[in-house]
Amino acid sequence: QVQLVESGGGLVQAGGSLRLSCAASGRTFSSYAIGWFRQTPGKEREFVALISWGGSSTDYADSVKGRFIISRDNAKNTVYLQMSSLKPADTAVYYCAAPRSKYTGGSYYTNEYEYWGQGTQVTVSS
Fold first, then answer.
1. Half-sphere exposure of 108 (CA within 13 A, CB side)
2. What is the pLDDT of residues 20-43, one digit of tens each?
3. What is the per-residue pLDDT for 28?
4. pLDDT score, position 105
5. Which among 72, 28, 26, 29 is positioned nearest to 49, based on CA atoms?
6. Cα–Cα distance, 78 to 29 (Å, whole number)
7. 44-76 burial code (b ≥16 CB/10 A, e <16)
8. Bridge partners of 22?
């Protein structure tokens, strides 16, 4: 089982940057792809970025491509989401998640993720 804890959210002005962290427990963390998702009130949780279990493959939602970078440090059991050029539209609760199966490239779909963190709020002011 994997337990995930997000941190690093906060209030930032448009154009600013934040780095989110997703810290995981469990000796098998490096075997799991990790996805970042975000959600605003009244809307579905949406895909933001993913990184494969080995870290060699990443992918991003079109809305964040070129502005966000996902990375992982398996020695620290942590995945990062570096967010730059933030926009008010990026305001949301951000969640990291791990899928049911190990050794995958990750998925864009929330129903393929088994383990979720509690979320961290990101607010971008205009």
1. 4
2. 999 999 778 889 999 999 999 999
3. 84
4. 87
5. 72
6. 9
7. ebebbbbbbbebeebbbbeebeeebbbebeeee
8. 6, 79
The two structure tokens encoding residue 21: 């962290």
Contacts of 13 (CB under 8 A, 6+ apart): 124, 125
Q: Give the SS3 label for residue 30.
A: helix
Q: How much is the pLDDT for 2? A: 87
Nearest Cα residue to 87 out of 20, 8, 6, 12: 12
Stretches where the chain sits below pLDDT 70 are: none
Greatest CA separation for the chain: 41
Rounded-to-integer distance, Cα 71 and Cα 81, Å:
7
